[in-house]
Amino acid sequence: MITLKSEIAASAAALIVEEGMEYGQAKRRAVKQMALPARTELPDNVMIEDAVREYIAIFCGDTQPTELAALRELALVWMERMADFRPHLTGSVWQGTATRLSDIFIQLFCDDPKSAEIALIDHNVDYEPRTVTGFNGASVEALSMSIVCKPLQESVGLHLMIYDHDDLRGALKPDARGRAPRGDLRAVQKLIEKDSSET
Length: 199
Description:
Blueprint: H1 4-19, H2 23-33, H3 45-59, H4 64-81, E1 88-90, H5 91-95, E2 104-110, H6 115-122, E3 128-133, E4 139-149, E5 154-164, H7 168-171, E6 182-183, H8 185-198
Parallel strand pairs: 2-5
Antiparallel strand pairs: 1-2, 1-6, 3-4, 4-5
């Protein structure tokens, strides 16, 4: 049965895939585009993810797997570079819904919050510090940069989100569907191996 929520989810999914929007922004834009009241009840992120997967299957089935693989390979390179800081991949690149317009989100769990930033400075990496809302609802620092993804022949956004080492325990709890919401180096390597065996 098509409901208002499912229509909003479908519209938001198109914006996420075609314009690289984040879920929250895409939901708000979809409501506006559909000329609905601002206080309209929104679909949850599980519903949005399902709509994104459906949209990809219908419209991007021939290109998305290659784009996802390229982003995962690039994420792995950066996770290896930042291995001292317990990197965990999250977001659409981890979940498998990323396209060439998606950013890469890597969460770092540091003993000293400034150590990751110092590591980037030591490697002459040009980044922009920002404050974002973390997975636990608190504000966290993100080190954002634009990096070239050679297989895609374009630049993508990479965001290193800085957490305290103690946050790692809570980070590994399963999501609403019982899946791991993020993965460490070994988990990402396994995903890449699985991707390459399926192509």
